[in-house]
Amino acid sequence: MLDHRLQILLDEERYQRVASLARARGVSVAAVVRDAIDRGLPSTPARRSAALSTILAAPTMSVGPPDELRTELDELRARRS
């Protein structure tokens, strides 16, 4: 259920992009804006899911023995302090 009304002003170029996409999808301009908000500002579970997908899709890489990795991470943390 939609509970809140939002008014925004767009320049002509942005409006034309949104309106064009709405026509192509056969939906309202408002539906395109809601979709853009969902994509740009996902809810916490969606953000976590997207982050997990990105991590799982990353190529495998060699990180060396755990002790070397721990030392490297400790050195990096020390530089930030």
Structure notes:
- It is a single chain.
- By secondary structure, the protein is mainly alpha-helical.
- It has a domain at 9-57.
- It contains four helices and no strands.
- The protein has helices at 12-25, 29-40, 44-57, 66-80.
- The radius of gyration is 22 Å and the shape is elongated.
List the helices and strands and how they pair.
Blueprint: H1 12-25, H2 29-40, H3 44-57, H4 66-80
Which descriptors apply to this entry?
single chain, 81 residues, mainly alpha, 68% helix
How would you concisely characterize the structure shown here?
It contains four helices and no strands. The chain has 81 residues and is mainly α. The N and C termini lie far apart (47 Å).
SSE class: mainly alpha
Straight-line N-to-C gap: 47 Å
| H/E element order | HHHH
What's the Cα radius of gyration? Answer: 22 Å
The parts where pLDDT drops under 50 for at least 5 residues are none
Helical residue percent? 55-70%
Helical region count?
4
Average predicted local confidence, pLDDT? 90
What's the overall geometry?
Answer: elongated
Largest sheet: none
β content, as a range?
under 5%
Number of strand segments: 0
